[in-house]
Amino acid sequence: MLILNASQVRQTLPMPAAVEAMKRAFLAISAGEVDMPLRSHLNLAGGRGTTLVMPAHVVSSDTDSLAVKIVSVIGDNPRRGLPRIIATVLVINPETGEPIAVIEGTTVTAIRTAAASAAATDALARPDSQTLAVIGAGVQAREHIAAIHCVRDIRQTYLVARDRAQAERLIEDMSAVDPAIRDITICESSDEAVAQADVVCTVTTSADPVFSPDAIRSGTHINAVGSYQPHTVEIPGETVKAARVFVDHRPSALEEAGDLIVPLESGLIDASHILGEVGEVLAGSIVGRRSASDVTLFKSVGCAAEDCLAASEVLDRAKALGIGEETTLI
Fold first, then answer.
1. What is the SS3 assignment for 88?
2. Both 268 and 251 in a single domain?
3. Structural domain tally of the chain?
4. Are residues 297 and 311 located together in one domain of the fold?
5. What is the DSSP string of 108-159?
6. 147 and 250 inside one domain
7. Residue 1 · residue 327 · CB < 8 Å
């Protein structure tokens, strides 16, 4: 069994490869090549947070991959100097049931979540998109800026954060890591950022909409990432109603995505307003963007198949590079 830590995950899962892995995951989901029960939620005593269990088996023309991710979301962790999200991915031999790898999953989650947004952006955003708005300044903000730059020629990024110092640190860190990512401007409000953006990524922990519906201009593509529970929303219901809406996995979205569940329950939209999965757009079986003026919305709650194929990519590259610590359990 191979054990891979965070730095080794980052070494073996470069963002361009992660984006392609997420496209394969989307295609597999929509082709019915995935056995993926809805994830289990365990609410921790005292409201400390949630632990999620996410299994998936992906069998397609180019893979037979089985993995389980266990991820905990603990709101107080940043005050302890720990990530808010901590995860581990167990990769299993689908023929024998033997564990073949334990992979640090926090980094997998960070990269694959942003890569999924980038894959959806590539499928749905205008090809000439050049401006990006990111609402939030945590780990997912960093990863989304890097990911969207992989699929569009972004010339200007507008960043919004409750903590300006955190936003300034993000800009400093990103310029040191990738000088090609340039021209990031901190905005005073979400509406200011969104009004200038061709692509918008919401990556917050907010329970309420993070911008005004009239701030979105025609032709914008939105990646809604932060909300993953039925009662929390980042996107105004009016924006959802006005947009062409796509998801990563319809059953998961209908179970967990507050951005869709809340307007569904209020009668603002009905189920037919969710036009389909991004995998169907990638496969050409449904139409994504129809015109340059469409507003498109990708709502992601994160799927185990995405973790499974990201972990498969990590494991293949780790074997090729000869990295990781070998051990045995059996």
1. strand
2. yes
3. 2
4. no
5. HHHHHHHHHHHHHHHHHS-TT--EEEEE--SHHHHHHHHHHHHHS---EEEE
6. yes
7. yes
Give the global pTM: 0.94
For residues 158 and 138, state if they share a domain: yes
Same domain, 285 and 159: yes
Q: What is the pLDDT along the chain (330 residues), one digit of tens a residue?
A: 999 999 999 999 999 999 999 999 999 999 999 999 999 989 887 888 999 999 999 999 889 999 999 999 998 998 999 988 899 999 999 999 999 999 999 999 999 999 999 999 999 999 999 999 999 999 999 999 999 999 999 999 999 998 899 999 999 988 877 777 878 999 999 999 999 999 999 999 889 999 999 999 999 999 999 877 888 999 999 999 999 999 999 999 999 999 999 999 999 999 999 999 999 999 999 999 999 999 999 999 999 999 999 999 999 999 999 999 999 887
Return the CATH number at 162: 3.40.50.720
Check if the beta carbon of residue 308 is closer than 8 Å to that of residue 57. Answer: yes
Instruction: Indicate the burial class of 12 (C-beta count within 10 angstroms; 0-12, 13-18, 19 or more).
Output: buried
Domain with 26 in it:
2-109+305-326
